[in-house]
Write a structure and sequence with these properties.
10 helices; Peroxisomal Thiolase, Chain A, domain 1; 2 domains; 338 residues; alpha/beta; 7-stranded mixed beta sheet
Length: 338
């Protein structure tokens, strides 16, 4: 039996599009000093946030983002059917410890830096499918905990090459509901794992860009839409290098992104005045930009339809040390006021 909601190979249209009734963004100090600082609910100046470790601080970011989003949506944890959430740490420990006190049924998500779009996708399917009335979608990352796990201890003082990106510190949460006002998720395009053989862990943009291009192309082919159907198309974490690769790859396929495409890694930080090299990355990069900035622009009707295509590098330190390449993934979420 064929699905009535499936369109093409990778896209699902929702018959009852869920509304995003509230969001929250809790950012670190560097993120707060960037161009979007005024859009965040909380800016934490201390990277440890009074905790004993960066990992415990990251859990605190997650808990604060979820609690703030619930408060702004005028609901309590008991009103939420599921929370779809994840982070970059082993076993998603930042999330597990961060939300344990909320006692909400939990669906753990791991899509690396694409986790915000993945969480939104799964939460939207739960609501549209009638399995939930209210779902939360959240993710977090922390510069210090990510560097410690994936690259070098901060004490090592290694020099970062120009292609490197800065893992965002913070957390974002969106509340999806079957009822209520707010921008709606009308369709999603689930990405495939794309691996072009990149092995440089300091060049995430090049590793993830082919996956972003593949998902965007699938979205346009499945839906029949073109870039001009969106006020803004935004990828998650590609930075300068990855963004230029996506533009070139889509141009070869006949799609012009020059007018309305940007990347969260370039929106979150000012690459000219902040030492972030190629731009931002991390789960919190797309989460902060969407939950803090883009959602506000949609509320103010400055944007009517956006396509959020968060991107992730599905790497592990073990695999990289064993000489494996870095697979990429990207999931796209179409959000509209109409």
């Amino acid at each position: 039996m064929s699905s009535t909601k499936k369109k093409g190979k990778q896209t699902v249209f929702f018959s009852s599009p869920p509304s995003i009734i509230g969001t929250a963004a809790v950012a670190g100090a560097k993120e707060g000093e960037g161009p979007l600082g005024a859009y965040f609910d909380t800016i934490v100046k201390d990277s440890m946030w009074g905790e004993e470790s960066w990992e415990k601080a990251e859990s605190k970011f997650m808990e604060q983002a979820v609690r703030t989003a619930l408060s702004k949506s005028k609901i309590t944890p008991s009103d939420v059917d599921y929370i779809c959430a994840g982070d970059l740490l082993n076993q998603c420990s930042g999330t597990n410890y961060g939300i344990r006190s909320l006692e909400i049924p939990f669906l753990g998500m791991y899509g690396a830096c694409s986790t915000m779009a993945l969480s939104l996708s799964v939460a939207a399917m739960c609501v549209d499918g009638g399995y939930a009335d209210v779902c939360a979608a959240a993710c977090s990352s922390h510069f210090c905990s990510a560097e410690k796990q994936f690259r070098f201890p901060l004490e090592y003082g290694g020099q970062r090459p120009p292609s490197a990106q800065w893992t965002a510190t913070g957390s974002g949460c969106a509340i999806l509901s079957a009822a209520g006002e707010g921008p709606k998720i009308d369709c999603i395009t689930t990405g495939k794992i794309i691996d072009k053989g990149i092995t440089d862990a300091n060049n995430m943009g090049a590793a993830m860009a082919p996956a972003a291009a593949d998902t965007l192309l699938a979205h346009f082919q499945d839906t029949g839409r073109t870039p001009s159907d969106y006020d803004l198309i935004v990828t998650g974490d590609l930075g300068k290098i990855g963004k230029s690769i996506v533009v070139d790859m889509l141009k070869e396929e006949g799609f012009d992104l020059s007018e309305n495409y940007n990347d969260c890694g370039l929106l979150l930080f000012d690459c000219d005045t902040q030492d972030v090299h190629s731009g931002g990355s991390g789960c919190a990069c797309a989460a902060l930009v969407f939950c803090g900035y883009l959602y506000r622009l949609m509320q103010e009707k400055q944007l009517n339809r956006i396509l959020l295509a968060a991107t992730g590098a599905l790497m592990s330190t073990t695999a990289v040390q064993q000489g494996e390449s870095i697979p990429g993934i990207s999931h796209a979420v179409s959000i509209t006021l109409k």
